[in-house]
Amino acid sequence: MKMSFRWYGDTDPVKLHSVRQIPNMHGIVSALYDVPLGDVWPLDKIHALKNSIEKHRFAFEVVESVGVHEDIKLGKPSRNRWIDNYCQSLANLGSVGVKVVCYNFMPVFDWTRTELDRPLPDGSNSGAFDVNSATRADVSKWKYLPGWDIRYTHEQVSALLADYQSVGEEGLRDHLAYFLERVVPAARKAGIKMAIHPDDPPRPIFGLPRIVKNRGDLRHILDMVKEPANGLTFCTGSLGADLRNDLPAMVREFSGERRIHFAHMRNVKTDAKGNFQEVSHYSQDGSVDMAAVVRAYQDTGFDGYVRPDHGRMIWGEKGNPGYGLYDRALGGAYLNGLWEAAEKYTRPN
Ligand SMILES: [Mn+2]
Q1: Distance from Cα 96 to the centre of ligand 1, integer Å
Q2: pLDDT digits (tens, 9 = 90+) for 293-326
Q3: Which one, out of 50, 147, 336, 345, has a CA that is 20 to 30 A from the CA of 76?
Q4: Looking at the domain assignment, is residue 84 inside a domain?
Q5: Active-site residue, selected from the candidate residues 71, 130, 309, 327
Q6: Tell me, what's the pLDDT at 133?
Q7: Domain that holds residue 252
């Protein structure tokens, strides 16, 4: 297990010298945030990012995310150009030693919450999702959604929502298969493993199709291109927002097949309707049995990258929603403990 921490670059209020003081941190997960979606990631900018990370004695081996252009997800004829760019970005990243690239295939919006700072009983706050308010929302009028790396205009959002009406789940699956058939060979050549992140939340929102929600979806995607370079980012927070997902069983299956390359560890308190709030990483605070998930990784010999995912805002910290320093540091330390215990005291057999 290689523990890592997500960092948004020099503008991130969290500084790498602080991250350095969290025990057992192996690497930094980052991305280029100033390259327009779909453009090739230039080698000089990748080098600069790598240098700023290695200066603090961290490895730079995981990128989250290389965004997928909307034309690829929509299956437009122009997708071939964007796919060529994507392959070139992978070649550039592989040439500096990047091993895993996280990406998602969510139409239009990345992770979505209806509240970014809902109070918790202990006085901290965190992101939450309410199914009813998401259903009522006229999203084309929203100014900003959390998780947007790109800011669309209202007109663009309306046009995209209309475009996706004709795509549907089947169409979106076909477009993902088309993408993977072309990108996975390029990733393999670059020494990179692709790792798709689940939909967050794992349900259709705003009438948009979602195809990375549960065990069946993940199986289907892995079978599109059956090789290790086509793998998963297994996010317990995203998948845990549907109580029907048996997370330890899914880890046993997919980690056992060596198809999980990146483990996102996050806890959510979820109800049967799919309403949820992010909580501390500690198992009893939420719906995810973190110890059982870690045990499943440990039993299947997982040696990939792990990071504490979204944390709460605690101790008065102001920062990017979900991505403050303090609670993610607590989460990392907790995960170190679970992992060490699982490794040292596994039943011999
Ligand atoms: Mn995640």
Answers
A1: 24
A2: 999 999 999 999 999 999 999 999 998 999 999 9
A3: 147
A4: yes
A5: 309
A6: 84
A7: 2-344
Amino acid residing at 134: A
Q: List the catalytic residue out of 235, 261, 281, 326.
A: 235
What does the pLDDT look like over 244-269, one tens digit per residue?
999 999 999 999 999 999 999 999 99
Please answer whether residues 34 and 2 qualify as being in contact, where contact means their C-beta atoms are separated by less than 8 angstroms. no
Domain total for the chain?
Answer: 1
Active site residue 334: no
Active site residue 235: yes
Classify residue 31: in a domain, yes or no.
Answer: yes
At 188, which amino acid appears?
A: R
pLDDT along the chain (349 residues), means of 10: 96 97 98 95 98 98 96 96 98 98 92 90 95 76 54 78 90 97 98 97 88 98 98 98 98 98 98 96 97 96 97 95 96 97 75
87 annotated active-site: no
| 349 domain residue, yes or no | no
On whether residue 51 sits in a domain, the answer given is yes
Ligand 1 midpoint to CA 77 (Å): 31
- 310, 326, 327, 334: the catalytic one is 310
User: What does the angle CA 104 – CA 105 – CA 111 come to, to the nearest 5 degrees?
Assistant: 60
State yes or no: is 220 an active-site residue.
no
The CATH number that applies at residue 84 is: 3.20.20.150
Active site residue 309: yes
